[in-house]
TrEMBL record:
<feature type="domain" description="Rhodanese">
    <location>
        <begin position="17"/>
        <end position="123"/>
    </location>
</feature>
<dbReference type="InterPro" id="IPR044240">
    <property type="entry name" value="STR4-like"/>
</dbReference>
<dbReference type="InterPro" id="IPR036873">
    <property type="entry name" value="Rhodanese-like_dom_sf"/>
</dbReference>
<protein>
    <submittedName>
        <fullName>Rhodanese-like domain-containing protein</fullName>
    </submittedName>
</protein>
<dbReference type="Pfam" id="PF00581">
    <property type="entry name" value="Rhodanese"/>
</dbReference>
<dbReference type="InterPro" id="IPR001763">
    <property type="entry name" value="Rhodanese-like_dom"/>
</dbReference>
Length: 137
């Protein structure tokens, strides 16, 4: 079954309305520290911070699905995967589905989306561009 892309605003609504829904931010520690994080306080939640690739080697995290399980994910948990622009999160969602988590969704355009004409992210599409809550770590 292919992973469905969902708009950041649709993921936010699902996170607020479904107590079981979980946002899995698959970016690196450096990105969380320097770019920011989705602020899920209004939904009464925290994002699960599980890197898909390990910085600085960018090798795929071999313990990724173990970390999902430790974050409380089950086969019934709607999982919304988020990265910078939607590519790593799609790979992570596909791996989650293959590991027995069928309710895996990719947050389209990620946290920052594609770069604008000046090469800056966070203004064209994605979590930040849609004006969804976020904070610096």
């Amino acid at each position: 079954m292919p992973v469905e892309d969902v708009a950041p605003s649709a993921a936010w609504e699902a996170l607020k309305s479904d107590p079981k829904a979980l946002l899995v931010d698959v970016r690196t520690d450096a990105e969380w520290n320097f770019v920011g994080l989705p602020d899920l306080g209004e939904a009464g939640k925290q994002p699960a911070l599980i890197p898909w690739q390990l910085y600085p080697s960018m090798q795929v995290n071999g313990s990724f699905t173990d970390h999902l399980h430790r974050a409380g994910a089950t086969a019934e948990t709607p999982l919304y995967f988020l990265c910078r622009s939607g590519a790593r999160s799609l790979a992570a969602a596909q791996a989650a589905q293959a590991a027995g988590y069928p309710k895996a969704f990719n947050v389209a355009d990620g946290f920052e989306g594609p770069p604008d004409a000046e090469g800056h992210r966070g203004k064209v599409a994605g979590w930040k561009a849609e004006g969804l809550p976020w904070r610096q770590r």
